[in-house]
Amino acid sequence: MAMLFKALGFMFVLYFKIHGTMAADGNFSFSFDGFAKSPSFDKDVSLFGDSKLVSSTSSIQLTDSVSGSVGGVVYKKPIKLLQGKERRMNSLSFSTYFSFSMPNEISDVLGFVMVPTSFDLSLFGKKDNSSSSALGFLFQYAKNETVVGFEFDVSSGGNRARILMGRPESSQIRNLSFEGDLMMDNGGRLSCMVEYEASSKRMMVRFRKSGSVKMYDPFFSFSVDLEELWKGGEFMVGLTSTNGNSSNEHFLHSWRFEIRHPPPMWMHSEPLQPYEAMEADSSREEEDGVERNECIWGMLGILVLGAVCGALGAVLALCIWTICGVRRSMVVVPEECPVKDVSAIEEGKK
Asked: Whole-model pTM above 0.85?
């Protein structure tokens, strides 16, 4: 039995060791499904500009009902993009989801921004000279900073997106339009999903209307190497919004972010409807000797766990066999009744 308990103890130690290592390597995430209900909101989230928390609806009001209103929300904790040590660093993928509502007018814009840890977060509340852009404050105030961001507006005139990568003072916004009926009714919500695949170095943006069964369609995508942009591998994420000349209020209802391990290269699929403005370079070279630590550690963990389970089964079977053997040796055998000598009795009678 002592061997059995030792095997169980070893298995539990191995399990927590493996899962603890995976958590330390960057299983980072946050989720706000109703901001007023979250106990970590005040500690992890900062509001800038005209943004404010609406306790009655547990949502964040990004803009006021005045023209030229600008607001931003930032998750303050740095997010680590790389895992591993020294030369065995691997870039991780991530997904983020947020639900929002804003009127269907061209001047109403919402943007998603990724900035390095050295970025001055107070700039998210700055108003720029161009009130029709959610990324305009970066061009005016974020000097010598490397950022990645995109903004979009949804209106009867069409869906438009603008993308910024690199240093604002030396970069130009890339413009494109994307198809799909994303018009929001009064009080209606729209969900946005942003995915970054480290293996293909591509970021994809998808949408879904509230109550729709069709998942995240339409989308736009673009190529970006976050590992190359931020050598340190850490960044912060934020959302920014402006209503331009419309005097409309914008609301953020929920926000979720999660780091995840990138899938193998053979599992990655390119978008089914790529747009020419956002197509990746067709001459992308594959690097030799790509480290696949995740697969190696996963296989090693399975092998070790299988060996431990096999040993545990053998020990358990041995214990059962021993117990059964002891029980057989303890079976009581009835004593034989003594047989009397019949001839001796007959002689006595005589």
From this structure: no
